[in-house]
Specification:
This protein is mostly beta strands. Helix content is 3%, strand content 41%.
């Protein structure tokens, strides 16, 4: 895996959480961006937050329903892991303003929550497939400059709370 992570969260009105991320050995430690969002659906607005990132910067979103963590362009080069500890306090005034028909939002109550990881890096391909730039042919023959760039980007990377339920069936073997 390019990124390994553990997310642990407990609490109701006051929530304590820990998110740990480790960079996989095959992934280069250089990103165009690396950001994490922890949305808190169905809890009300965040009134107080103590966020302690080991790397980067963390804050509460403008709408006060999520924690945002900008890890930055690199992980620490010695350990290749980062963590975010935090305590968040909510004002109880009903649901958030999100669409209630979304099954994911309806599922995210109590301990059922996740951290969404988004990142983009150049020079890495997870599948090990590559294109030989010397074998590419352009027709009709013209003088051209050929540039090949490999980009790896997360699309829907969620790390679910270890203490909550998972929204897909998991076999116990």
């Amino acid at each position: 895996m390019p990124i390994c992570g553990v997310f642990k969260m407990r609490g109701d009105k006051t929530v304590d959480f820990l998110l740990q991320l480790k960079l996989g050995s095959q992934l280069k430690n250089s990103f165009e961006y690396f950001e994490v969002t922890i949305p808190f659906f169905n809890r009300g607005k965040i009134t107080h937050a103590e966020l302690r990132p080991s790397w980067g910067m963390a804050n509460v979103s403008q709408h006060r329903h999520s924690v945002l963590w900008n890890v930055g362009y690199k992980f620490p080069s010695k350990s290749l892991d980062v963590s975010l500890k935090g305590t968040v306090v909510f004002k109880r005034n009903g649901r958030t303003s999100h669409v209630a028909e979304d099954p994911l939002i309806s599922f995210c109550v109590g301990l059922n929550c996740y951290a969404q990881v988004v990142f983009r890096t150049k020079g890495f391909v997870y599948s090990s497939c590559s294109v030989d730039s010397k074998s590419v042919r352009v027709s009709p023959d013209t003088k051209h400059k050929f540039s090949l760039e490999r980009i790896f980007q997360s699309s829907d990377c969620k790390i679910w709370n270890s203490y909550g339920d998972v929204p897909v069936p998991v076999s116990k073997s």
